[in-house]
Amino acid sequence: MRRNSAGALVVLIAAAVPIFLLGNALWLFVNPWLVDAQYALPGFPDDPELSNSAREELAVTGVESVRPWGGGAELLREARLPDGEAAFTEREITHMGDVRALLAAFLTAWAISVGLATAAAVALRRIAGPGSVERALARGAVVSLAAMALIGVVMLIDFEFFFDGFHGIFFEGDSWRFNESYTLRRIFPDYFWGVAGGGVAALVLLQAAAVLLIVRRRARPDPRSPADGSAIDRNPSGREPQSRQRATAPK
Length: 251
What we know:
mainly alpha
């Protein structure tokens, strides 16, 4: 029974690790600084009509609107192009609302996974002893490394395939498809998503590698202890203590 319980707890912790690492990356990347950084890149594509400063301002508005704690759809409805026209259509606003809902759902799952994994770690340590939690974390880190490495390879080989597949899974029908005349496409070109996706993948990989490194360092034996793990001989002379000698001396 204890073995089954420990196995279930290990699976829970290992499954929570990828969610936790990806959630950390999203918390970091879904911020206006990402827009500023990308628009400052030398190879960022220009738009034939909109200046980069106008595009950057609208892109920041877009990011702010999808953050669960941001202003939401109202920010998009209030946004204007340089000529005074509405920057986003209702179709674009609806899609960004879907993005916001998806992001909120994932970050909620992130918070739940943190709570469950913490509780599972406490229970696992009591059941299986020291080192059990570290082994579960290592398994989750390995899964994260393998999964994100595979995703990274797919993005490098055919980013459009990855992009379309991702949206096909999480969004209904063609609600996410926009041609080049839509503002969303003009402020968030494919280049933007390629860099953002690569950054998220790299950050997850770095976190997973850090977890493995920390776990391995904690698992190293104490150099002051014997290599075979036996108890340290505190009486190297081999002589029995005087009290024992007296107790065993012949009468």
